[in-house]
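Let's see one such:

===
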Amino acid sequence: MDSQIKKLVNVSGSCLSNNPVVLDVPKHVPTKLSSELRKLLELKNGFYAFEQALHVLPSKSVAESCGLDSWNDPSLWISNYKGLADGCFFFAEDVFGGQFCIRSDGIYTFDPETGALTQIATSLSGWAKALLENYDVLAGYNLAHKWQVEHGRLDPGMRLAPKQPFVLQGEFVVENLYPIEAVALMRQSANLAVQIRDLPDGAQVTWKISD
């Protein structure tokens, strides 16, 4: 096992699932990346790290975490993006619901508010290295820490959403954040992403936090 992946696992919290790893991936996921993901989950089948900021999903759903099987079911939230999230296999998320996903040519971030994809590595090892070197930006550690100091530990399955979306000039401050269940966050963010994807710069957008 690659040393970077081992390092990431070693700084993470407890294992979310004690069940055997059963990994079903779509055809577009390269064998090398699928193998790396399996090895990661065999070391620890789902976990939180960096004070709940990073959430790596277990292979199958358990009481405290949605699994890769359910999370990648299009009907859960992916279809709400109306094509923006297609061709991705999502396996982890940051504290704001920003997704980490595998595509045919590497590991990408997926911005939940815009649907924008950015490649950050060509391997799981590279992804782990990037996180270890820059977990504040990539996982949202600093704000996750500050919010939990004021409000208490985030419950399993919860993420932090901005009251005013970041893409609509919302600030990266504790006062602009509230806890929300991860699926609800993705569906809410998808509604925003679909609304703004064809709008010109400077267009007005009305935003309402849904219950």
About this structure: Residues 67 and 168 are 31 Å apart (CA to CA). The chain has a mean pLDDT of 94. The two ends are 43 Å apart (CA to CA).
